[in-house]
Amino acid sequence: MLIAAARKSQEAAEAQRALDNVSDKYQKTLEAGKQALIDRAKALGMNEKQAKALADQIYQIPTKSEWEMIADTSQALWTIQNFMSKSGTLSGKII
């Protein structure tokens, strides 16, 4: 149940990032989902330390430097995709 809830919030965060390509919103959505998981785990009887350990294991939210790399990469990806869609001469997908 907890893992399914976490998966849904992670999918929602990913969908938001795909929609607007804003890593700050993505990070905040992940952190909100993680906190919701902690709260649910505590409501089910886990103590704070156990709930946080579970959430850390499931979410594995990037460190500050990893977020900076994600943000830089996202901007570059958006620029390439924008160029490709406007040019109309290129085809393919950037992963």
Helix proportion: over 70%
Largest sheet: none
Distance from N terminus to C terminus (CA atoms, Å) equals 31 Å
Low-confidence stretches: none
Q: Outline, from the CA principal axes? A: elongated
- Class by helix and strand content? mainly alpha
Q: How are helices and strands ordered from N to C?
A: HHHH
Mean pLDDT: 77
Cα Rg: 17 Å
Strand % is under 5%
Counting DSSP E segments of at least 2 residues, the number of strands comes to: 0
Strand-helix topology:
Blueprint: H1 2-20, H2 23-43, H3 48-59, H4 64-87
Overview of the molecule:
It is a single chain. By secondary structure, this protein is mostly helical. The radius of gyration is 17 Å and the shape is elongated. The chain is built from four helices and no strands. The two termini are 31 Å apart. The longest helix is centred in the C-terminal third of the chain and has 24 residues, at 64-87. The protein has helices spanning 2-20, 23-43, 48-59, 64-87.
